[in-house]
Prior knowledge:
Elements: E1 5-10, H1 14-22, E2 29-35, H2 39-49, E3 52-54, H3 57-63, E4 68-71, H4 78-87, E5 92-95, H5 102-115, E6 119-122, H6 129-140, E7 146-154, H7 167-170, H8 174-177, H9 179-190, E8 193-200, E9 212-219, E10 224-230, E11 239-245, E12 248-253, E13 257-261, E14 268-271, H10 276-291, H11 301-320
Parallel strand pairs: 1-2, 1-4, 2-3, 4-5, 5-6, 7-10
Antiparallel strand pairs: 7-11, 8-9, 9-10, 11-12, 12-13, 13-14
Helix pairs in contact: 1-10, 4-5, 5-11, 9-11
Amino acid sequence: MEKRMKLGLVGAGAIAQSYVQALRDSTVARIGAVADVRDEAARALAEDAGCEFYSSHKDLCDQGECEASIVCTPPGTHRDICIDLIQQGIPVLCEKPLSTDSGSAREMVETAEKAGVVFTMASKFRYVEDVIRAKSIIASGVLGEVLLFENAFTSRVSMAGRWNADPAVSGGGVLIDNGTHSVDLVRYFLGPIEAVEAVEAKRIQGLPVEDTVRLFVRSVEGVVGNIDLSWSLNKELDSFIDIYGSNGTVRVGWRESKYRPASSPDWIVFGSGYDKLQAFKSKVENFCGAVRGDEPLLIGPGDALASVEVIEAAYQSLSRDDWTPITPRPGETRWLGPLGS
């Protein structure tokens, strides 16, 4: 008897391919059908997954006989697709960002609540084993009181011609794309966010959206954080999260994670870093456990909605130009970039 939950995968792009890879050895879930408006892409991924394919999510609903679904389409399509699935009684794990605006995100969450259907956002970094261990280390009190959170998701990648850089589809640039992960991590470690300020750097790629942003946040508990996001620079850091406490530091890295109490001369290694497929597998299996009523969601619908609200506030900050101008000295020129234009 089949014990694995049969999942419908809506979208056949790069993220969807990661789900197929991550679930190959899962004893909890399997990809049972793939849907994409691009028939060739749907067929190719379905062949890889060993399942049926459909030309639309509605066909998948009608014919796929799936117990739950994963939505991996561009953000601008999330609202309509997710609501269609929810209204058919199909639980939904929707890729980040949940939506391009808080109004549609709230509509999705409320529709799921009314229908009694499990619905939430897929944000992989909360499921990285080292991230979970780092939170446990902080909760133990060994590093004292948390004072500063730092995160960087920066890498050089050409975004020309990609939907991620088309604001009509993505809702923005690197801030909503990579920043959604960052905001979810801040909330995971520090709790609700009270205030946010976003500053855009010079645009390098000639895109209609921001390609480099620095984000400042403050939690309701008064802990501050700074986040670097970029498609145009690579900070070449070993860690993507650094959390500083009154009595020590913890670093979550790409290849190694470690912490050091202030009283210790040596770092204590507690993990081997970021494992993408492990994170994908864990988030799907947590979702399936919630659908079956066996465990709570690590990222609930409230977390998903909050992430959209914080990013929305960050864009409002970005557009306000809160910088205090400095009168140029004789002979100096002033750069009139995105903030000064």
